[in-house]
Amino acid sequence: MTKPIGIRTSGQHDVQFDLVQPYQHFPKKITGPTVWEADDFRSHPERWLKKWTAEHIQELEEAYDSFAQSKLPITAITKVCHSAAR
Q1: Residue 81 lies in a domain
Q2: CA distances from 37 to 42, 43, 48, 50, 86 (A)
Q3: pTM of the full predicted structure?
Q4: 68 found inside a domain
Q5: Which domain holds residue 67?
Q6: Rounded to an integer, what distance in angstroms lies between the CA atom of residue 30 and that of residue 33?
Q7: Residues 30 and 24: beta-carbon distance below 8 Å
Q8: Could you tell me if residue 69 is inside a domain?
């Protein structure tokens, strides 16, 4: 694993400072098909809620403990699923 350098975004590309806008320029209301509305949660909770088993929780705790012991910066986190190899 390579250690990240500098400020990063989602991990896909470097920050594009010419696209950064001041807060005053942010929209007052977010709209569109990707917006989550309260009714979406109320009418279909099964789409949004996850029931965690004891094994899921143990796996998350072990992953956190391993990462915390590594002393790497939080930007070093990547999406890797080790459970598929078990």
Answers
A1: yes
A2: 9, 10, 12, 18, 37
A3: 0.42
A4: yes
A5: 58-86
A6: 10
A7: no
A8: yes
